[in-house]
C-alpha cells in the first residue's frame, strides 16, 4: 500500500469542500441581489407613502437640502464607464440607477447591481436610497445606510461611477 494515497484522498476532499463553499457563496450573493430587486419593486409601488423619513445632515455639504419648488435637479457625470464626463441626467420623479433594463439611468459598471439605487422626491426635497445593492452606494464617500436627502454639490458614487448633484 502506498503512503501517499491517504494524503491524495484528503487533498481531493479538501478541494471539493472549497469548491462547494465557493458555489454556496456565489448562489447566496445571487439570491441577495434577487431579493433586493423584489423589495425595491414593492417600494417603487408607492414611493412617497412607503418611504421612511429622510432626515440627517451631511457633513460634506454646507448647503441645506435642495428645495425643488422652482428648480430643476440633475446628476452630472464626473466619471462612469460608458458615459462621457459632463453628461447631465435630469431627475424628474422617481429615478432608478443600475445595470438592469428597468433602470432609468443605465450604468455599464461591473460593480453596480441591476437596480442599485433610486432618487425620489419626498416633500420638496430629493432623497437617495440604496436598493439593497451588493457593493453599496456612497454619498460624499459615506456608505448609505438608509434614505438621505441630497444637497447641491453632493457626490454620489456607485462602483466606478461618480456623479455630482446640482440644481438650477
Structure in words:
With 168 residues, the chain is α+β, with helices and mostly antiparallel strands. The chain has two helices and eleven strands, in the order H-H-E-E-E-E-E-E-E-E-E-E-E. The strands form two sheets. The chain has a six-stranded antiparallel sheet with strand order 2-1-11-10-7-8, with no helix packed on it. Strands 4-3-5-6-9 form a five-stranded mixed sheet, with no helix packed on it. Strand 10 and strand 11 form a beta hairpin. The longest helix is centred in the N-terminal third of the chain and has 41 residues. The radius of gyration is 21 Å and the shape is elongated.
Short précis:
The chain is of the alpha+beta class and 168 residues long.
What attributes does this structure have?
168 residues; alpha+beta; 2 helices
Low-confidence stretches: 39-62
Number of strands: 11
Number of helices: 2
Oligomer status:
single chain
Q: Helix-strand pattern, N to C?
A: HHEEEEEEEEEEE
Largest sheet: 6 strands, antiparallel
Q: So what's the overall shape?
A: elongated
Question: Pairing-aware structural class of the strands and helices?
Answer: alpha+beta
Distance between the termini: 82 Å
Amino acid at each position: 500500500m502506498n503512503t501517499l494515497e491517504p494524503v491524495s484522498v484528503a487533498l481531493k476532499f479538501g478541494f471539493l469542500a472549497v469548491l462547494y463553499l465557493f458555489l454556496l457563496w456565489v448562489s447566496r450573493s445571487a439570491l441577495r441581489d434577487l431579493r433586493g430587486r423584489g423589495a425595491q419593486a414593492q417600494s417603487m409601488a408607492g414611493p412617497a407613502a412607503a418611504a421612511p423619513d429622510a432626515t440627517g445632515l451631511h457633513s460634506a455639504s454646507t448647503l441645506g437640502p435642495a428645495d425643488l419648488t422652482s428648480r430643476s435637479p440633475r446628476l452630472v457625470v464626473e466619471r462612469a464607464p460608458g458615459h462621457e464626463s459632463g453628461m447631465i441626467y435630469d431627475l424628474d420623479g422617481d429615478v432608478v440607477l443600475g445595470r438592469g433594463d428597468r433602470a432609468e439611468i443605465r450604468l455599464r459598471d461591473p460593480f453596480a447591481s441591476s437596480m442599485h439605487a433610486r432618487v425620489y422626491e419626498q416633500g420638496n426635497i430629493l432623497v437617495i436610497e440604496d436598493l439593497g445593492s451588493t457593493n453599496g452606494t456612497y454619498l460624499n464617500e459615506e456608505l448609505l445606510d438608509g434614505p438621505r436627502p441630497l444637497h447641491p454639490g453632493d457626490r454620489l458614487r456607485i462602483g466606478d461611477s461618480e456623479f455630482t448633484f446640482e440644481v438650477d
